[in-house]
Write a structure and sequence with these properties.
- The structure is a single chain.
- The protein is mostly helical.
- It has two domains: 91 residues, CDP-alcohol phosphotransferase transmembrane (TM) domain (Four Helix Bundle (Hemerythrin (Met), subunit A), Up-down Bundle); 103 residues, CDP-alcohol phosphotransferase transmembrane (TM) domain (Four Helix Bundle (Hemerythrin (Met), subunit A)).
- 84% of the residues lie in helices and 0% in strands.
- The protein contains seven helices and no strands.
- Helix 2 packs antiparallel against helix 3 and helix 2 runs parallel beside helix 4.
């Protein structure tokens, strides 16, 4: 708990410093996206996994700061929220597509397939949440949210950089399964909420007609 509190305070202080320096939350979002794409396409796709991991990790810090900066500057804007979501999806695509390219080019088709399954899973998890929230219910449940996925792929990439490509493949398949489970959890969670709302509306209709 103390460590988490320290991290939050450090993020808040950094966010305030950046805002005072004239850096906007949207600029931080774009900076994080550029770093992720450079790390993934420029280095992971060519097999330079350690450098790619370092660049993407730093870029993830930018992604963690933009939300804090938006809240400190008055809650952010609807465009900022849209930009952040779009940047996350582009970043996910860059990371997993680059890994799939490198793995396929290295003669490891099963591992490449696992990376593509992770990409599909990442998009599905995000889509189910966005669609559920667009329909008026909560969709943020499940284990494999974006930061967990990044940690998983980060560990896998480090294993691959150490030459443990088999362990890297296992990590990718595990993440693909967890992503599918998370999407299922979100669907079930949304269904329960829809049923609760439909039941409440049915009760109100009966009451009004009696």
């Amino acid at each position: 708990m103390r460590a988490a509190g320290t991290i939050i305070r450090a993020r808040s202080a950094t966010a305030r410093l950046l805002l005072r320096a004239g850096v906007s939350a949207d600029a931080m979002t774009v900076l994080g996206l550029l770093g992720t794409v450079i790390g993934a396409v420029g280095f992971a796709a060519r097999g330079h996994l350690l450098i790619a991991t370092a660049i993407v990790a730093v870029s993830a810090l930018c992604d963690a700061l933009d939300g804090m900066m938006a809240r400190l500057s008055g809650g952010g804007t609807r465009f900022g929220a849209l930009l952040d979501s779009a940047a996350d999806r582009i970043g996910d695509g860059a990371v997993f597509a680059s890994l799939a390219f490198w793995l396929a080019d290295s003669g490891r088709p099963r591992a490449a397939a696992a990376a593509l399954c992770c990409l599909i899973g990442a998009y599905l998890v995000s889509y189910v949440r966005a669609r559920a929230e667009g329909l008026g219910v909560s969709g943020e449940v499940g284990f494999a949210h974006r930061y967990v996925r990044l940690k998983f792929v980060g560990v896998g990439v480090l294993l691959g950089a150490l030459g443990l490509v088999g362990a890297f493949e296992v990590t990718l398949w595990a993440l693909a399964v967890l992503s599918a489970i998370t999407a299922g959890q979100r669907l079930v969670h949304a269904r329960r909420q829809f049923r609760a709302v439909d039941g409440l509306l049915g009760t109100e209709i009966l009451d009004s007609s009696s």
